[in-house]
Amino acid sequence: MFPMLKVVQYYTPQKVVFGVNAVDNIGQYIKEMGISGKAVIVTDPGVAQAGIADRVVQALKKDGFEAAVFDQGKPEPDNVVCDQAAEFARKEGGSFVIGLGGGSAIDIAKVAAQLLALPGKTEDYLVNTTFPKKGAPIIAVPTTSGTGTECTMYSVVTFAKDGIKGFFATPAILPDMALVDPTLSVSMPPKVTASTGADALSHAIETMMARQENPLTDAIALKAVEFIAEALPVAVYEGDNLEARVKMAYASMMAGMAFNDPGIVEGHALAHTLGSVYHVPHGVGCAVALPYAMEYNMGHCMEKLARIAVALGQNTAGMSVRQAAQAAVQAVKQLLEDVGLPTTWAPFGKKEDIPMLAGMMVESPWITAFYGWSKRPMTREAAVELLTRSYEGRLGDKLY
């Protein structure tokens, strides 16, 4: 049951534009917000080579905007690349920043926009996860359907010095506008489509298991689960299917909106651990972690999981609530395997590493931060069990 008496704060962009070919009128939408000056587009080499950055530049020029393109973004960004983007934006005299690409490019853009208005470097602020004030305007234009970062107040940034994943968590980096155009995701390769889809699914389901979930976030998250179950396999194996891309774009955006307040829980804690130690791509880490995180929360999220089973297309008629919840766990695992994702971290690490990983899961402040949103306390014993099960690919018997 959601906390009936809790004061809830909902953070969403001031403006959200969603639609096929909407990016071709981006200049118009920016003008309507009263934003002017030079745009700095933060993207990555793949998006630039695909011609998507040029498409945005031309759309901006149509409405009189100058634009400069920083195309050196990289996956799982660190503070160094964020500083590079910020320095580029400063030298170009940028007035606002457009994050164009997957979650990594948009996360870099969020930081670069702040540093247009603030002195110093990324690490100066990353240690505290926040900035003292709002920076330059941020426009988020995703080319993947996964992180939902276009609608969140989070940015995941790795500390280059030790490889540990940190993050910003502040309304100051919430995009002023999210422009979601499903045509931009059509060129996404199948593996990227699958892994980003797993991230979106994790956001939606983990939000519903979080301690601070509420009726609005539940409704949005549940619809996102339904869309992902319907559309992810189609988008992976039939990439030019625009209807599937539209559903995945909606699902990613809605899941991002949903977790802004309730947060995300043990699945992301495990995914960030694997990402920090083995450099497992974030979406892949989410795929590995999600079924086991769901089972871990079975005892106090049973009714939620039973509802998720229905959204996943499971026929739960005649099942008990527990049976339906268990069906949800198995359905998620099957869906992830159907799109070619691993559901064990055995390909990436060694079983002998479990004590070290468990220590990280209960001691690193960048991992334990997720438990502030969790309903269950995380003990070392539970971390070992969760890691062991997710290494072995084992579901079904009693969990701590």
From TrEMBL:
<feature type="domain" description="Fe-containing alcohol dehydrogenase-like C-terminal">
    <location>
        <begin position="193"/>
        <end position="389"/>
    </location>
</feature>
<dbReference type="GO" id="GO:0004022">
    <property type="term" value="F:alcohol dehydrogenase (NAD+) activity"/>
</dbReference>
<dbReference type="Pfam" id="PF00465">
    <property type="entry name" value="Fe-ADH"/>
</dbReference>
<protein>
    <submittedName>
        <fullName>Iron-containing alcohol dehydrogenase</fullName>
    </submittedName>
</protein>
<keyword id="KW-0560">Oxidoreductase</keyword>
<comment type="similarity">
    <text>Belongs to the iron-containing alcohol dehydrogenase family.</text>
</comment>
<keyword id="KW-0520">NAD</keyword>
<dbReference type="InterPro" id="IPR001670">
    <property type="entry name" value="ADH_Fe/GldA"/>
</dbReference>
<dbReference type="InterPro" id="IPR039697">
    <property type="entry name" value="Alcohol_dehydrogenase_Fe"/>
</dbReference>
<dbReference type="GO" id="GO:0046872">
    <property type="term" value="F:metal ion binding"/>
</dbReference>
<dbReference type="InterPro" id="IPR018211">
    <property type="entry name" value="ADH_Fe_CS"/>
</dbReference>
<dbReference type="Pfam" id="PF25137">
    <property type="entry name" value="ADH_Fe_C"/>
</dbReference>
<feature type="domain" description="Alcohol dehydrogenase iron-type/glycerol dehydrogenase GldA">
    <location>
        <begin position="13"/>
        <end position="182"/>
    </location>
</feature>
<dbReference type="InterPro" id="IPR056798">
    <property type="entry name" value="ADH_Fe_C"/>
</dbReference>
